[in-house]
Amino acid sequence: MRLTTGIRLSWPELRKFLHQHLTEHVLPFWFPKLIDQRYGGLNNCVQDDGTILSTEKYLWSQGRALWVLSKLFNDIDQNPKWLEIADPIANLLTDYGRTTEREWYFSLNADGTPAKEPQSIYVDGFCIYGLTEYAKATGHSKSLDVALEAYAQASPKLDDHCLVRTMPHPIPTGYQAHGPLMLGCKLAQRLIQDRMIGEHEITKLTLTDITTPKGLPKFQGIYAEHAMDMGDPGSAKKLIQQRPDFIFHLAAVVSGEAEADFEKGYRVNLDSTRYLLEAIRTQQDYCPRVIFTSTIAVFGVPFPNPIPDTHHRTPLSCYGTQKAIGELLLADYSRRGILQGIGLRLPTICIRPGLPNKAASSFFSGILREPLNGKEAVLPVSEDVRHWHASPRAAIRFLLHAASIDLELVGRDCNLTLPGLCASVKEQIEALERAAGKDAVSLIRREPDHFIERLVYSWPESFEAEKARSLGFKAEKDFDEIIRIYMEDELGAAS
Fold first, then answer.
1. What CATH number is associated with residue 21?
2. Catalytic residue of the set 275, 319, 333, 486
């Protein structure tokens, strides 16, 4: 079977194609002919016709091959030939793969002697999961011991995201590797720094994400980190048993990803919210403050410009729909006295640090962040597109203000549209030129994306946000200020 671009296969057809391609093409190309029978390991530097270009053995390839072979045995057909092929790779890794300080070499020579010194966290990752899968298949205790020891050695490396070595793809200046959720990380840093929410001292702080947060300053109090899926109802129950006074619920699969992965969007954006609220409801004599992050995508065309606070929700995307349902749940649980809820319809956060996320709005940050770091950026829409923005610094102010505000002033409609800056893409680029010159602007490449254009043109451009402004929420006045904040907070520019 041959897969042709543009042909839509059914799930059984796709599964058949992938299985056939794996068994008839991929596996015969590599195994066993590219296994080094003399010294062990896999010859991974080869041409498309199988000609060996170099006998240097890169360890991420060894770990990846070991995982594939072990996974074939564990989950596909339990054929012992896979383990016979895997054995010399596992032996190479356990016997020769690490320095005396237990760091993984980047590569080895054919005979197992060191070729390139340690220089990549990717090697740690591939070797750990390769050896773990192999130990599962064989019961080989040495492989498991090495994997566990390597995991313990690798984890602390992630505490400083900017210094993690990631060859052959070094981290560009101004980026982070393995970074936690952007707003969650910045909020945690402020809470740790201030140790106060309004007039309330923070004596205990619990952080929860799909992965354990790393690189945060030390909290002077009771502190816990949890890596768990909030789409699992048991996760919320476990956390709420601690009865926190303030809960910042930031969990989100953003716009583009929520549209592309329907089930994931509803599980993360809606189910996790419902499970959290239900876990609170089951606690006796407990009524915490819940700060829920929503989105301006709860509004869809047609709408007035600017949109008043009284405008009804009309979402036209999965993300907007999921967040709109969350808003209604938050208001109802608050009305019943189960919790003290406040929902914040955040503007698009710009300039986001780090790598682009899967939001359709990601380019708003990218066309500024990338040029400010000397990198090329893609602009998928026309310069006349207008949108509603606020900086990460403003977003953290919004969250902290919402945690301490008198909810009697907010009233029964506890979901607020927050202030922002209405600006066109053209105005963004003009501010970039003022900050970094024409050379930075020249790094923006126009490349229209009709999917993103259609999505963005259905989004609102500006809001009155009168209620939130009257309650003390404030955003930036122009993009010069937003760019200055990014340069101060992420590039170390002087204020």
1. 1.50.10.10
2. 319
Look at the block and give the residue holding tokens 């929902």: 343
* Whether residue 244 sits in one domain with residue 196: yes
Range of 381's domain?
Answer: 182-490
Q: How does pLDDT run across 172-186, given as a tens digit for each residue?
A: 544 444 433 578 888
Based on the domain organization, do 27 and 78 belong to the same domain? yes
In the prediction, which pLDDT does 205 show?
Answer: 93
Asked if 489 and 393 count as a contact pair (C-beta separation under 8 A), the reply is: yes
The last residue of a domain, from among 131, 163, 195 = 163
User: What are the residue ranges in the chain where pLDDT is below 50?
Assistant: 1-5, 160, 162-163, 173-180
Look up residue 310 and give its two tokens: 């009284």
- Can you give the CATH number for the domain in which 328 is found? 3.40.50.720
174 found inside a domain: no
**Total domains, the chain:** 2
Task: Tell whether 83 is covered by a domain.
Answer: yes
Kindly state whether residues 311 and 200 are assigned to the same domain. Answer: yes
Q: What is the pTM of this model?
A: 0.65
Q: Is residue 93 part of a domain?
A: yes
User: In whole angstroms, what is the distance from residue 431 CA to residue 39 CA?
Assistant: 59
Query: Is 151 known to be catalytic?
Result: no
So what's the pLDDT on residue 12? 84
Same domain, 224 and 123: no
Kindly list the distances between the CA atom of residue 49 and the CA atoms of 25, 34, 45, in Å, as whole numbers in the listed order. 12, 12, 12
pLDDT at 164: 63
Q: Do the domain assignments include residue 170?
A: no
Q: What is the pLDDT of residue 99?
A: 93
Tokens of 181: 């959720």
